[in-house]
Design goal:
This protein folds into two domains: about 70 residues, no CATH class; about 120 residues, Nuclear Transport Factor 2, Chain: A. By secondary structure, the chain is of the alpha+beta class. It is about 50% helix and about 35% strand.
């Protein structure tokens, strides 16, 4: 394979890798492809034209930029998904009212089966739940459909599964289809709206 063809292939593979694989796969594949091309042609590097030298540097530079942007997006998407998981675990499973500010903005609203729940409504629900001398245990599981981030705003859609147990026995399983929006502030991501629709079991 010619020198020019080798580096054009490295450039093409770098772009495809950044669009379709995980960060770890990107690192491994890009490193392998480009290192092989460089090592194969290193012996002849002194004979490269100025254009070919610029192409080598551009290929490596493009790979680094692509990896950096992709990694940042993946990291923030994981933060939004963790925000959903942890908020349900701490709030709707454990009723830890003091942690509301860690997950919700001050003007957060929950649209639940045709009802509008604001922060006072949610706190009232927690207070009543904590008065139960033998509360059930709720385990939350999520299947994320899509997560989108644009600047300091995020949107996420997911399936929410709750398994309710009492005295060690499962008494109920509930499923919702939900979407939520989040805003990024000085302290990180916070949910400002959540819309929930219960999915009834098929007969």
């Amino acid at each position: 394979m010619s020198t020019k063809a080798s580096f054009l292939m490295a450039l093409l593979l770098s772009i495809l890798i950044c669009n379709n694989t995980s960060v770890l796969s990107q690192l491994v594949l890009i490193y392998y492809v480009e290192s092989q091309c460089i090592l194969r042609q290193l012996h002849f590097y002194t004979k490269f034209s100025l254009t070919m030298k610029k192409l080598i540097l551009f290929t490596l530079f493009l790979s680094l930029i692509c990896l950096s942007a992709f990694s940042q997006t993946q990291n923030e998407e994981k933060q939004i998904q963790d925000l959903i998981q942890n908020s349900f675990d701490d709030l709707f499973s454990s009723f830890q009212s003091e942690k509301l500010k860690d997950y919700y903005t001050g003007d957060f609203i929950l649209l639940e089966q045709g009802e509008v729940w604001d922060i006072p409504t949610i706190l009232n629900y927690f207070d009543r739940a904590k008065q139960n001398p033998n509360p059930p245990t709720r385990v939350n599981r999520f299947e994320f459909i899509e997560t989108k981030i644009e600047d300091n705003r995020a949107w996420i859609a997911y399936h929410n599964f709750a398994t309710i147990s009492l005295n060690g026995e499962v008494v109920r399983e509930i499923r919702w289809l939900e979407s939520a929006t989040a805003v990024k502030g000085p302290e990180g991501w916070r949910l400002d709206m959540l819309h929930s629709t219960r999915v009834e079991k098929e007969e």
